[in-house]
Amino acid sequence: MVRSGSFHVDSSSASHRRTPSRTVTLGHIQPQAPSYRTVYCNDRESNQPVRFKGNSISTTKYNVFTFLPKGLFEQFRRIANIYFLGISCLSMTPISPVSPITNVAPLSMVLLVSLIKEAFEDWKRFQNDMSINNSTVEILQDQQWISIPWRKLQVGDIVKIKKDGFFPADILFLSSTNADGICYVETANLDGETNLKIRKALERTWDYLVPEKAYEFKGEIQCEQPNNSLYTFTGNLVAQKQTLPLSPDQLLLRGCSLRNTEYIVGAVVFTGHETKVMMNAMNAPSKRSTLEKKLDKLIITIFCVLVTMCLIGAIGCSIVTDREDKYLGLHKSDWEYRNGLMIGFFTFFTLVTLFSSIIPISLYVSIEMIKFIQSTQFINRDLNMYHAETNTPASARTSNLNEELGQVEYIFSDKTGTLTRNLMEFFKCSIGGISYGCGVTEIERGIAQRHGLKVQEEQRSTGAIREKGFNFDDPRLMRGAWRNEPNPDLCKELFRCLAICHTVLPEGDESPEKIVYQAASPDEAALVTAAKNFGFFFYRRTPTMVHVRESHVEKMGKIQDVAYEILNVLEFNSTRKRQSVVCRFPDGRLVLYCKGADNVIFERLGNGTDDIRKVTREHLEQFGSSGLRTLCLAYKDLNPETYDSWNEKFIQAKSALRDREKKLDEVAELIEKDLTLIGSTAIEDKLQEGVPTCIETLSRAGIKIWVLTGDKMETAINIAYACNLINNEMKQFVISSETDAIREAEERGDQVEIARVIKEEVKKELKKSLEEAQHSLNTVAGPKLSLVIDGKCLMYALDPSLRVMLLSLSLNCTSVVCCRVSPLQKAQVTSLVRKGAQKITLSIGDGANDVSMIQAAHVGIGISGMEGMQAVMASDFAIAQFRFLTDLLLVHGRWSYLRICKVVMYFFYKNLTFTLTQFWFTFRTGFSGQRFYDDWFQSLFNVVFTALPVIVLGLFEKDVSASLSKRYPELRASMRSRPKVPKK
Amino acid sequence: MSSNTPSSSAAAAAAGSVDPSAARRNSKRPKYSKFTQQELPACKPILTPGWVISTFLIISVIFIPLGVISLFASQDVVEIVDRYDTACIPPSDRANKVAYIQGAANKSCNRTLTVPKEMKQPIYVYYQLENFYQNHRRYVKSRSDSQLRSVKDENQIDACKPEDDFGGQPIVPCGLIAWSLFNDTYTLSRKNQPLAVNKKGIAWKSDKEHKFGKNVFPKNFQKGNITGGATLNPKIPLSEQEDLIVWMRTAALPTFRKLYGKIETDLHKGDTIEVNLQNNYNTYSFSGKKKLVLSTTSWLGGKNDFLGIAYLTVGGICFVLALAFTVMYLVKPRRLGDPTYLSWNRIPGGR
């Protein structure tokens, strides 16, 4: 009942999940040790002594023997169950006024229900595991392909995987039916990206394709120990006395599937729980709602009441009975009536048993049941939260946080993909100091509207092309018109750079209309699409070549196919923030094309183009302020000698076993310098539908929204403006690391000094802002406040000494924008508010970089229906659109909170009346502890007789209708300020 | 517009509805039902002044007459209560009542009752005990139902301690309850004519037929050192020992009445009834009171004003509330649905 999500996860992704206990054990063997494993391919005997783990996986919590003890243990970790176990034991003794059935029956009923639920969930997991373990794979045995179940697969086996098949383990890619030893894999199960990835086998192993040949393959793989890093793999293949370096390119991961390739042959490297995907599997930390924690406190209070009642009874009994010890011949009875103290002692326990029903045994079970129905029937099936375009309904992946939604006070939102569509459209560009593109962004329009300016309707030139990823219109560049521009050469370089410098895969027919670009990010696809529309049509990629159909290059209207040889790809990563490609033109010219973030590129420019640089910088700022994402492009001609000497270093770094990444970065640094600036591109990042209205509604409901983004400050501020988060009436505090003082310190370059300067600056800024904030809060009707801070400053502001100041400043602000923040910082900010301010927080995001933030908040929400499953897998609720937050928080959350509160009150009410009658009766029976109710009545009162009304209340109670609570979001704020459950 | 390239229109078509049936098959769109959309019909009464005042009025209009009727019914019941526990002890022995009651002296005692009003038959004769905890946990469980029911189970005496056996032989009926059977007796006479008290048919029929066996005879009863109460005739089966059956149905509260018998003639106003009673039962050790009660019944049962008073109180409160709300509504009416009263429209500290 708790993890409702488990029923919706399809079989393949279910294998990623695992019980927490499992994760803990694996956590211990996290192999950071320098040792490596040696695998003898195609040789089971040699691998025997090492005892690699088998390929069968188990994600179940229990087995037949451990189910009862372990299941019961889990149940008795709940304090209420322990309490009832104690009471049941007491009721077996002669001091009990009630028959044991009174306490044993409800307890066993509650336990039975919970155990059946556990068993059912575990059975599902088991069946899932079995179907995975028993799916078949072909392995090489005696020169033949033989089908065996996955679980019998061993490290070192040679396997054959057919088209669309899943890889049963982590496999070293040896050969493929495709030419050039490549294959395509889909990694949707791992990272949710639907674009195909190329994997390339080592040239030496291309031949081992048919059984007869593959049988001869005897190699030794030396590679790292199993670890959970999906994107790294280092190792060597020792075959025929040659040592060949291995890279992630040769590793096919379990969980991925083969596409567009007839079949491949590979050697198993990691199996079962040692595969990377299984090492990665983890459960989101289980979250308990605040209400549930409050409930615990309430139960403890009630327990104290119980003890008091029993003490009163015990004292009363010892006085009464002691005084009238001859009463009704009791003096003749047993030893426990010897003196007042003894009588009191035993009566105390008698009364504990009698009054035990003051703590409602079925409370937890009923609440779980209510929440389960709420999440599976109401949230998951709400048509208002169904997104038709992506065919995604909302999904509550856990049911124990429903009412938490009704109490959220802070929302931490990612920008890209959450507030914005992550739908990138090529919008503008700047080439050689001239800005092209005459569109007006929605954000600009919004700003203009706020300034009261009339926005003129867009004038589209008649031939304008509009397609997914391309929303650019400027006759000066289209259809070869760029030839007449002042810098036709730079234009050409820009288009080539766009067409060559990327990692996009073309798919489908090689015509401009039908081709589909598979890209890692929509930015890349937009750029390649732009190149296509400018007449540089990238249509085919082979492992070494990029084919581009160029138009109008030599003269207007001429179309020619050009094949560029790709010599090196210096890939993009978050530290480099740039991507380069070294290519050789058909005429032998060697060129490095580089694209990346503006500051990174500007740092690496050569001398001489200062004016272009200055103008481009201005353009970049303009683009940024219209909410566009910018990239700078640059190129560099290489001479063959320098290239060759560099290439040697590159190959060396590439085959390094250790710290390969770092070495590659260092080598890249050597060649990515003295670049020539071409210009910049600007891509529009479209807002999601209904975001501004949703944000306005939520802020009327008293919820504060913080935007945490990795984007630039200007972009972030503009998105915040566009979303109504910030407006001109607000007082803005900007804490940026782009100040002169900090820049100066950075130029001096001493790390310690930089840190000191930034910290001082941040401290100064914070202090100043805080004073101003407090001043304006003290004045009547002062402006609302907003805070903008960037990642670098945030790093220092999160320092324990400044944290308090940051917190009190940001809590005074209606909206906060943090830009250029890392995933870790996102989580830090979230827990700052969660722990520091004791507020209920909600994080919403769509990408892998939001996972930590989603897990750090009280409630984590993932945006589903788009690329990337990681955020969803880590989340508690998944919705398709940001705007559905209105429904989720204002309708479902509000109602759930109201209902659960009422249910709890109802429970305590009915059990208090039930027990207090008993208590009153105790006074009338000489404190003897005689029961007032029939045994069966008492035992079934909670679990049967009064079970249904409570559940009905928990499902159907409404104070106002859904439409009213959306129309008047303030209702929610008023509900929150008046706690329904008494604070104790 | 001609700006659309073929590819984009194809993509649009793919995203849209190409094949409705296929789209429906793969759709994850939740099915509509009033339950899942939380649109089940519901009503929530709005407590307008009209509703509230009329509800209170209706309650008071119903309850006040009911209360009056109940009170009258209770008033009709004629009840004679005579406390005799102290009165029936000779003044010389009142210093030590327990010694007197445990002694061997003659416990005979005469009381005179005057009938205040006409009493129609049947007139019930009760004895009322006060401060007697027949509901005490150790007392209540000190019995053996199976033994009472059938001869076979006469050895089932585990619960009966300390009155379980006598010299190794089971006591029938065993236990503290039976042991402490009430043993005062009343002989009534009017104008020197004996007044018959019918002691048959005072027990519950179900008790006689199902709970007390026809072939279970008292055995070893009251043989112990201390005699608790009445003795039983070992020749009469338990199912016919109606005094025992009445006594064994333990009272819920420490003050209780138990039926002693029925007088099946009318008593007239001013009649004096002579009661000759044997004051045997020891309530003195725990300062319990003993009373003799003669009472008629009405359709509402015995004399009890509680129900009538309860009805009158609730009805009265409702009437007062209805009046108060009416006055408030007339003096200072408030517009319904006034948004200025909403929490977010109230400026903190203002207004």
From TrEMBL, chain A:
Per UniProt, what is the name of the gene that codes for the protein in this document? LOC104704451
Q: What is its main location?
A: membrane
Q: How does it sit in the membrane?
A: Multi-pass membrane protein
Q: Mind telling me which residue stretches traverse the membrane in this protein? A: 298-321, 341-365
The subcellular localization recorded is: Endomembrane system; Membrane
Task: Identify its protein family.
Answer: Belongs to the cation transport ATPase (P-type) (TC 3.A.3) family. Type IV subfamily.
The residue ranges of the P-type ATPase N-terminal domain are 39-103
Region of interest (Disordered), residue spans: 1-26
Q: Which reaction does it catalyse?
A: ATP + H2O + phospholipidSide 1 = ADP + phosphate + phospholipidSide 2
**Name of the protein described by the UniProt record:** Phospholipid-transporting ATPase
According to its UniProt entry, this protein's organism is: Camelina sativa (False flax)
SUPFAM superfamilies cross-referenced by the UniProt entry: Calcium ATPase, transduction domain A, Calcium ATPase, transmembrane domain M, HAD-like, Metal cation-transporting ATPase, ATP-binding domain N
Q: Where is the signal peptide?
A: none
According to the UniProt entry, what is the EC number of this protein? 7.6.2.1
Xref: Gene3D superfamilies: Calcium-transporting ATPase, cytoplasmic domain N, Calcium-transporting ATPase, cytoplasmic transduction domain A, HAD superfamily/HAD-like
- Annotated P-type ATPase C-terminal domain ranges read 872-974
Q: Which UniProt keywords apply?
A: ATP-binding, Magnesium, Membrane, Metal-binding, Nucleotide-binding, Translocase, Transmembrane, Transmembrane helix, Transport
Matching Pfam families, A to Z? Cation_ATPase, PhoLip_ATPase_C, PhoLip_ATPase_N
From TrEMBL, chain B:
UniProt keyword Transport, yes or no: no
Is GTP-binding among the key words of this record? no
Entry keyword set: Membrane, Transmembrane, Transmembrane helix
Which InterPro entries does this UniProt record tie to the protein? Answer: CDC50/LEM3_fam
Q: Where is the composition biased (Low complexity)?
A: 1-23
Pfam families tied to this protein: CDC50
Where is it mostly found? membrane
Which sequence ranges are marked TM in the entry? 51-73, 309-331
Where does the protein end up? Answer: Membrane
* Region annotation Disordered: where it falls in the sequence: 1-34
Query: Which family does the record claim for this protein?
Result: Belongs to the CDC50/LEM3 family.
The identity of this protein, by name, is ALA-interacting subunit
Q: Which gene encodes it?
A: LOC104745495
